Predict the structure of Glycosyltransferase family 49 protein.
Amino acid sequence: MLILEPCECYPSDFSNRWRTTHRNGPQQIHSFSKLKANHGLSSFSRSPGKSPSNGRVRLAIYKQSPMLFEIEAGYIFLSVTYTAIQACLGLSRNLCHILGLCFEPLNTVTWTSDRTVIRANNGGTWSRSLFESKLFEQALKPTEVIPYYYRALHEHSDEDVTITTIVTSNRFEALARLVDQYRGPVSAAVHISSSNLTRRATLLASLHDIYSSSPLFTRWVDIHLVTDVHDRQFNMWRNVARLYARTEWVIMLDVDFAVCTDVSGRFKRALEAGGNVARLAKSGRAAFVIPAFEYVVQEDGKDWKTFPTNKQTLVELVNAGKITMFHQSWAPGHNSTDYGQYYSAQPGEVYRVTTYQKSYEPYVIMRHDGPPWCDERFVGYGGNKAACLFSIYLSGIDFYVLSDDFLIHQSHEYAEETRKNERKINKHIYGDFRKELCIEQIAQSLQADTLHKEDKYNLRMECMRTPGVPEIVLQHLLKSEHKEGGPFN
């Protein structure tokens, strides 16, 4: 249950512990220190004798910035446009204003398990179904999304790196392995088919068993439930997992990979050190590639506990012919990473990907807010992840390889016949998608007179070699920029 609404203001009243109940999930207890640590609520104090269980606690929120905040207090509160927050019970609004403790919010949102109402001051309202249809407008309908079906208790910091991943009903064990191995924030979109209610109930019970099987889940993992009759809406699920992540940085990762090094800790330390990584991160135009590998013999890649945990051992196994780049059978997916340069790179080195091509689909650390979202028209295998990375690249973000870190794929069987058929369809969709995105981005850049700017370099270069983009028009645009003293002089 998610609620945002104005309140009758009152000086802060908190019990020492707060309880939230998730629909179809267990109750969870949160300390006030967690609320303060997560959201910078240093001005709050606890008044003995007052308890939120005696009444519905509300939040008064000052309008200040467009940043996202979440507060849990009896219910879960979500604000998109307000920052300064005070808890309150049932005092009158007039007294609140006299004391100068709160102002009237512009809008209120109530998001419950069965509906969403967005209520503006002018009285306009929107239903939850309408709200979600716009939020995931390209997804197949009907689709129900239940964010934070299970919610982690850990006090995340903005500098933590959240793995955002997608999980089908046959991959619960893979999620458990990832959680056990990573031991950091995970935002997982879990798909449960609604086509068979009995089967759905069984899978939800299995999900509950997995989530309650280890304290690592309740410490680290947010589960967002996606339920519908549509299988393999991978990009829509990726967007769900990323949207509800709670840190500034995320890794878009498949659930069957092992993060073999302390990539999160090293990345945080690099940001704090203020060197090259920090400079690139601050620019907003960098995504950081974690090179991916797989075992040559599938049987060797089933137990992540036997995987190498440092680059020296990894390179030794590569030289011994036991490990190779991920999906050696499909080199375009990852070869732009330039594995030769990775092997020879010095500790701490970060190098730029200079040979991007349309099939490149690395696993990257990127900002939670800023990069484009995955295009949701893709259903099934083939082209979906590459489309995400293509959008990111065209937006002006470059890829930089972290030379000390790596991922290894945990071997499992693939449904090859299904993958083969869906790839044929998505190959055509991906071609159309690239053409459309190029034309759309070029048109917008021309209208804004920004096509000549440095951050449009990827757009110019990649679209110039994208088949199907009207060649004469594109050549005219580029020649025009050249003649007028644009970026090609």
